[in-house]
């Protein structure tokens, strides 16, 4: 085989003609998935579109039925109405992370209609019209006024509050110490009393044992 022939992609067998649609010929952001369209090996349809080039690696082989999951079956056969999140971000002029934040933070974000790919490389598709309506509403919001910074407190005030706090803590701990000293004194008195009782009881027991032994010898 000639070395140059290794870089030439094999010719594909043309598939059946696609039906005519009213799609704007200048619209090149929505990626189409049609199981009957004889997709290339990497499963990328309409590879001349910008989002197809960006998502080529992460889509995987979408021609595999196992790599396609319809979450909104009503859009099956209406793939022209869907757009993936990366292409949607580029279409409205925001970053992909901004779209991800919209999806996480807003319950009214368009529900996913189609998942392609497997595992972590899955690509999410939502209805294009719903996405544009949501993005238009988000981008038309006026930013809220900046919250004014809290006024800085005087250093003398901070030191005075610190002193007052320390004084309160010292008073509390001294009171606790006094209670503990009193409790310790009570404990020591009780311990002394019970040790005396123990000695007296042991002494009486010894006397009784000795008396019993002396009585037994008689």
Automatic annotation (TrEMBL):
<feature type="compositionally biased region" description="Basic and acidic residues">
    <location>
        <begin position="20"/>
        <end position="41"/>
    </location>
</feature>
<feature type="compositionally biased region" description="Low complexity">
    <location>
        <begin position="208"/>
        <end position="218"/>
    </location>
</feature>
<protein>
    <recommendedName>
        <fullName>Helix-turn-helix domain-containing protein</fullName>
    </recommendedName>
</protein>
<feature type="compositionally biased region" description="Basic and acidic residues">
    <location>
        <begin position="51"/>
        <end position="61"/>
    </location>
</feature>
<feature type="region of interest" description="Disordered">
    <location>
        <begin position="1"/>
        <end position="66"/>
    </location>
</feature>
<feature type="compositionally biased region" description="Basic residues">
    <location>
        <begin position="192"/>
        <end position="202"/>
    </location>
</feature>
<feature type="region of interest" description="Disordered">
    <location>
        <begin position="192"/>
        <end position="218"/>
    </location>
</feature>
């Amino acid at each position: 085989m000639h070395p140059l022939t290794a870089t030439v992609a094999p010719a594909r067998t043309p598939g059946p003609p696609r039906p005519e649609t009213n799609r704007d010929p200048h619209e090149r952001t929505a990626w189409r998935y049609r199981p009957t369209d004889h997709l290339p090996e990497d499963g990328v349809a309409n590879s001349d579109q910008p989002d197809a080039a960006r998502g080529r690696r992460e889509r995987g082989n979408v021609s595999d039925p196992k790599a396609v999951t319809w979450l909104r079956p009503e859009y099956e056969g209406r793939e022209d109405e869907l757009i993936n999140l990366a292409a949607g971000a580029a279409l409205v002029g925001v970053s992909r992370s901004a779209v991800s934040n919209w999806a996480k933070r807003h319950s009214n974000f368009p529900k996913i209609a189609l998942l392609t790919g497997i595992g972590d490389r899955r690509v999410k598709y939502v209805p294009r019209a719903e996405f544009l309506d949501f993005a238009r509403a988000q981008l038309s919001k006026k930013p809220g006024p900046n919250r004014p910074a809290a006024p800085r407190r005087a250093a003398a005030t901070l030191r005075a509050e610190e002193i007052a706090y320390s004084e309160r803590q010292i008073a509390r701990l001294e009171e606790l110490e006094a209670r503990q000293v009193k409790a310790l004194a009570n404990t020591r008195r009780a311990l002394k009393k019970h040790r005396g009782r123990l000695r007296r009881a042991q002494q009486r027991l010894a006397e009784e044992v000795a008396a019993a032994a002396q009585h037994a010898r008689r």
